[in-house]
Amino acid sequence: MKIAVGSDHAGFEYKTKLLALLAYLGHEGVDYGAYSDEATDYPAWIRPVAQAVACGEADRGIVLGGSGNGEAIVANRIAGVRCTLCWNAESARYARQHNDSNVLSMGQRLVSWVTACEVVDVWLSTEFEGGRHQRRISQIDD
């Protein structure tokens, strides 16, 4: 899969590591910035990730910040994006199974690196269940 990845300064360390992890897992990670840990405004880096997913330029996206909350809010402002804030493997599994999440948000200050790796692995490998969940996704999109 082609995965767009973006962060602000507070998620920069994990973004850099996740790009390497994605390559190791056989995915193409595309870096949308930020490009350092200098303070920056997250919408500038997160919106392009969400737009890339929404227009089909990327299969999925991962956005990172200090908490992941603001990043999820920005991503979800783009039509067609279903960004879920995940903090453990179980939340990532439900995000994919029930919500067909196409953008993952995490907070570097709140999730350990080991947990972040587990979240990404589960989120990338879990399929959407469809069925009653598809009906709900359709209602969101309407």
UniProtKB/TrEMBL annotation:
GO molecular function, a single term: ribose-5-phosphate isomerase activity
Record has Ligase as a keyword: no
UniProt keyword list: Isomerase
SUPFAM superfamilies on file: Ribose/Galactose isomerase RpiB/AlsB
Presence of the UniProt keyword Cell division in the record: no
Pfam families: LacAB_rpiB (PF02502)
Biological-process GO terms, alphabetical: D-allose catabolic process; pentose-phosphate shunt, non-oxidative branch
Protein name: Ribose-5-phosphate isomerase B
